[in-house]
Design goal:
- The chain is mostly helical.
- The protein has two domains: about 10-245, no CATH class; about 255-395, no CATH class.
- The protein has helices spanning about 10-20, 25-30, 35-45, 55-70, 105-110, 110-130, 135-145, 155-180, 180-195, 200-210, 225-235, 240-245, 255-275, 280-290, 330-345, 350-365, 370-375, 380-395, and strands at about 45-50, 75-80, 85-90, 95-100.
- It has a four-stranded mixed β-sheet, sandwiched between helices.
- The longest helix has 26 residues, at about 155-180.
- Pfam families: Peptidase_M48.
- It comes from Kribbella alba.
- Its cofactor is Zn(2+).
């Protein structure tokens, strides 16, 4: 059974962040009620309008897709001229839905596939009109940020994931419109390959051979095979948003991961500063610098988190609890350096501080720590062995 169509947890998380951090910019980009006269003029000059009298099957498919998605909107269709690659896209207008076809796509689609393609494009409209255009405003904000060379990488990575999330949402609209997984995947394949005859079941078997836990490497759309996998698993009520997030990577965080990494750093620094052997005012002062803004350290709760296992991530804005995410090697290395910085912040802690930090590393599953500390501090083999033996005793 096709599930309900609502924004992905990623959409809700980014919207919540943007409204909190960039409220004025977001509000300035909320959609206005007026139509865009330039778009209408350009379409009339450069495309062929597909009217209902000559294309009744196209307009009937649109009516059925609208009913399936709960949309009450006029739909207009246009065919681009002199375009070779099969494609369809939504040109957003406030008062109507405008869908532009390119290349010989319409010639290749069967009725159910046509409904899926239209449902995909109308789902974009559905997302952009939810909550008074809130998600469209985020889309515009991230799009504008991507065009500015001064934009921080966190915004660029957020835009990449946001656009992919929107495509997964639209794929669900395609499935909801036509009501059949094989038909939806077949339509997707025809657009991606340009072939008239495709095998959706073979494509779904191909998807099952992939390890998608590392996330999609797509720049605007997830890989087609990943989109097919996501549809199948959405039907099975599985979490598919790992396609958007992948492991927690300090080298390429989006806005949400950057905030998560700040919280993780602050919590880990607090654990370190409260460890016997490192519990000094100097270490506490350094550890407080990982808070945002810097301030007094709270008392950490529970045991030191394990970083060699997938890390439990807090839910975002009422979304289901996300699947735990593994940490990349770069993120583990960053945590090792954080630990070493605090272990050496106060010279008075001496070997006791180093041994305590090695004990923390063992409890946290940071196996690269001993090698990293050795490389940075230049231990002799004998000194390393003595420190390791003492750390093992502390853990026991």
């Amino acid at each position: 059974m096709v599930g309900e169509l609502g924004p992905l947890g990623y959409h809700r998380g980014v919207l919540g962040y943007v409204r909190r951090v960039d409220q004025r910019a977001w509000e300035a980009l909320l959609p206005e009620a007026e139509a865009d006269p330039k778009l209408k003029d350009g379409l009339l000059r450069n495309t062929h309008r597909l009217e209902e009298i000559s294309h009744p099957e196209l307009h009937e498919a649109a009516k059925q897709a609208c009913r399936a998605l709960g949309l009450d909107v006029e739909v207009e269709f246009f065919q681009a001229q002199r375009s070779g690659t099969p494609n369809a896209s939504l040109l957003h207008q406030v008062e109507k839905a405008v869908i532009l076809f390119e290349g010989p796509l319409l010639e290749r689609l069967e009725p159910g596939e046509l409904k899926a393609v239209i449902g995909h494009e109308l789902a974009h409209r559905l997302l952009w009109t939810l909550d008074g255009g809130a998600y469209l405003a985020v889309d515009r904000l991230l799009d504008a940020a991507a065009g500015d060379a001064r934009t921080p990488g966190q915004y660029l990575e957020t835009r990449r994931r946001w656009v992919m999330a929107s495509e997964l949402f639209a794929d669900r609209g395609a499935l909801k419109a036509c009501g059949d997984l094989s038909t939806t995947v077949r339509a997707l394949l025809k657009i991606q390959t340009g072939l008239s005859g495709v095998d959706p079941e073979a494509y779904l078997r191909q998807a099952s051979e992939l390890d998608l836990s590392t996330g999609s490497r797509g720049t605007s759309h997830p890989e087609g095979v990943a989109r097919a996998w996501a549809l199948k698993n959405w039907l099975a009520d599985e979490d598919v948003e790992l396609l958007l997030t992948g492991p927690l990577d300090v080298d390429s965080p989006d806005l949400l991961d950057a905030e998560l990494l700040r919280e993780l750093s602050m919590d880990f620094a607090a654990h370190i500063a409260h460890t016997e052997g490192l519990r000094t005012d100097t270490v506490a002062t350094y550890a407080a610098g990982f808070a945002d803004p810097p301030g007094p350290l709270g008392v950490p709760g529970g045991a030191v988190p394990r970083f060699d296992e997938p890390l439990a991530i807090r839910p975002v804005d009422g979304a289901p609890i996300p699947r735990p995410r593994p940490l990349t090697a770069a993120t583990k290395q960053y945590l090792c350096y954080l630990l070493l910085d605090l272990a050496t912040a106060d010279p008075d802690t001496g070997d006791a501080g180093l041994v305590a930090s090695m004990g923390v590393a063992r409890r946290a599953g940071l196996t690269p720590y001993d090698d990293l500390a050795d490389d940075e501090l230049g231990w002799s083999d004998k000194r390393r062995a003595e420190l390791q033996l003492a750390a093992d005793e502390v853990v026991r």
